[in-house]
Design brief:
The chain has 357 residues and is α/β, with parallel strands linked by helices. The protein is built from 16 helices and six strands. α1 links the parallel β1 and β2.
C-alpha cells in the first residue's frame, strides 16, 4: 500500500500530526510526505500512490493536490483539521471563505473518506451535507485519550476500507479476464467452456475479486466457478470486510425475487428478465439471464418475435452485446444479433460503475 500525505508546511500542529502518522504507518505501508505542490506532483507520479491523504482544506497546495488526485484517478481521503468548523471559517477573509466553500465542495464530495477529530467537528461537517463518509479519529497531538499508535492503526483501517471499495475499478487485466472465466464456468459448471490460457492463475488479485463478488451478490457463482476450474483461492471472509458504497447502492437481489418464479413458459420468463435488466441492470441479473439463455427449451424465434412485438429488440440486442463481454455468452445461444452503440456503452457503464463512489 502506497500512501502519499500532503499538507501545508506553515501549520505546526498539522506538521506534528502528519509526523506521528507517518511514524506509526511505516511498518504497514510505504508512506511518503510532501509539503509543497512541486514535491507532491513528483511523488504522486513516481511512487504510484494508491491513496493520497490530504491534510486541511484552506490552502492552495491542498486544492492542487485534490485536483491532481482526481485527474490521475487516485483515491483520496481528507482530514479536515478543524478548518471547516464555523469558528475557523469566520476567521478567514470573506472572499477566501466564499472561494473555499465554492471550489473545495466538489473535491470534498468525491473524497472516499472525511476524517474528523471528534463528534463536534463531525456534527458541523455533517450539517454541510457534502459527504456522508465521515470517520472520527482523535488527534494524538492534542489529546492523551488516544496514543499515536492507535491513531495510526485507525487511519490504516480507513486506508484499507478505501482500497476494499469498488474493487472492480482496481483490477488488472489478468484479474478481469479471470473474473469473466470464473463467471462463465460458474454458470455452465464445466471448465471446458473457457480457454485455460485466457488468464494466469498465479497473478489473480484474489482479495479484489472476492470482495467484488460479495458486493455484487454473485458469491455462489464465483465459488462454484473457482471450484470447477480447480483454482486455489485464499479463504477470505468477505462479509466482514468494511467498504464504502455509493449513496444509491442496494445489494443486488436474485432475479426471481424481482420478476417472479418460472411458471412453465421459458419465453415469458426470459421476457420478464430482459425487461427488468433493461430497466435496472445488475451483474447478478446478467448472470442469471445468461444461465436462462443456455437452457434447452429456449425458442429463439418465439423470443425474437415477442421482443419485436414489445418494441424491445434494440434494447435486448444491446443487452446481448454486454452479455457477450461480461459472461462470455456464446454466439450460438444469442436469440438475436448483438448491438454495440452509444446506448450499449451506457448500459455497460451502468454495470461497471455500480459500486463507484
Amino acid at each position: 500500500m502506497n500512501i502519499l500525505h500532503i499538507y501545508s508546511k506553515n501549520n505546526e500542529l498539522i506538521h506534528k500530526h502528519v509526523q506521528l502518522l507517518v511514524e506509526g504507518l511505516r511498518q504497514s505501508a510505504n508512506v511518503q510526505v510532501a509539503d509543497n505542490a512541486k514535491s507532491f506532483y513528483q511523488q504522486a507520479r513516481d511512487m504510484q500512490a494508491d491513496i493520497i491523504h490530504v491534510h486541511g482544506v484552506n490552502q492552495m497546495v491542498q486544492t492542487k493536490a485534490l485536483r491532481c488526485a482526481q485527474k490521475r484517478n487516485i483515491r483520496y481521503v481528507l482530514t479536515l483539521h478543524g478548518q471547516l468548523q464555523p469558528f475557523a471559517l469566520e476567521q478567514l477573509p470573506p472572499q477566501q471563505r466564499a472561494a473555499m466553500l465554492l471550489y473545495q465542495r466538489d473535491f470534498i464530495q468525491s473524497a472516499y473518506s472525511i476524517i474528523t477529530f471528534g463528534k463536534m467537528e463531525s456534527s458541523s461537517f455533517q450539517k454541510l451535507g457534502w459527504n456522508p463518509r465521515i470517520e472520527e479519529i482523535r488527534n494524538a497531538v492534542t489529546t492523551n485519550t488516544i496514543t499515536p499508535a492507535e491513531m495510526a492503526s485507525q487511519t490504516f483501517a480507513i486506508y484499507q476500507k478505501v482500497l476494499d471499495s469498488n474493487t472492480l475499478e482496481q483490477m488488472d487485466d489478468n484479474t478481469l479476464a479471470a473474473l469473466r472465466a470464473i463467471i462463465k464456468v460458474g454458470i455452465m459448471g464445466d471448465k471446458r467452456w473457457v480457454a485455460p490460457e485466457s488468464f494466469d492463475p498465479r497473478l489473480i488479485e484474489w482479495r479484489k475479486l472476492l470482495i467484488f463478488a460479495e458486493h455484487e451478490n454473485i458469491v455462489n457463482y464465483i465459488d462454484y466457478g473457482i471450484r470447477k476450474l480447480g483454482l486455489s483461492a485464499p479463504l477470505i471472509d468477505t462479509t466482514r470486510i468494511a467498504a464504502y458504497y455509493p449513496n444509491s447502492y442496494t445489494r443486488p437481489r436474485p432475479i426471481k425475487e424481482i420478476v417472479g418464479d418460472y411458471q412453465g413458459d421459458q419465453t415469458d420468463y426470459l421476457m420478464r428478465i430482459i425487461r427488468q435488466m433493461i430497466k435496472s441492470p445488475t451483474l447478478l441479473g446478467v448472470i442469471e439471464l445468461t444461465r436462462e439463455l443456455y437452457r434447452d427449451n429456449v425458442n429463439d424465434d418465439k423470443l425474437s418475435e415477442q421482443l419485436e412485438e414489445a418494441n424491445l429488440t434494440k434494447n435486448a440486442a444491446r443487452l446481448i452485446q454486454v452479455l457477450s463481454e461480461t459472461t462470455l455468452l456464446d454466439e450460438g445461444y444469442m436469440p438475436i444479433s448483438p448491438l454495440n452503440d452509444k446506448t450499449t456503452e451506457k448500459l455497460r457503464n451502468n454495470l461497471k460503475n455500480h459500486l463507484k463512489i
